[in-house]
Amino acid sequence: MAVAPTRTKKSARRQKMEAAVNYPLDWLEERSGLVGGLRYFLFRKVPGDTNWFHTLGSATLTAFLVQAITGVILAMYYKPDPNSAYQSVNHITNDLTLGWLVRGMHKWGASVFIILLFFHMARVFLFGAYKYPRELNWIVGVFLLVFGMLEGFTGYLLPWDQTAYWATVVGINLNGTAPILGPFLADFLRSGAEIGPDTLSRFYSLHMLLIPGAIFALIGLHLYLVVRLGVTSPPWSREAAGGLGAGADYEAQDGDGRVGLTQPTARSTFRRNGDE
Amino acid sequence: MMEPQHGDRPHLPGPSLYPIAFAAGVACILVGLIVSPLLIAPIGAGIAVFFGYLWARDATKEYRGVPEPIEPEGVEPGTPTAAPVPANVGEAATAEPEPGERFPRSRFLEASTLGLGAVIGGLITVPVIGFMVVPPFKGQGYPTVDLGPLENFPEGKWLITTFYERPQDGTVSRRTAYIRNNGLLNNEPSFTIIWNRCVHLGCPVQPNGPVQTNQKKVVRVAEGQQVSLTPALPAGGFGCPCHGGQYDPEGNRTAGPPVRALNRYEYSIVNGRLVLGQPYSVSHVDGTGKNAKIHAYKLAGPGMHVDGWEQIFYPVQPPH
Question: Domains plus CATH for chain A?
Answer without folding.
Answer: 52-229 (1.20.810.10)
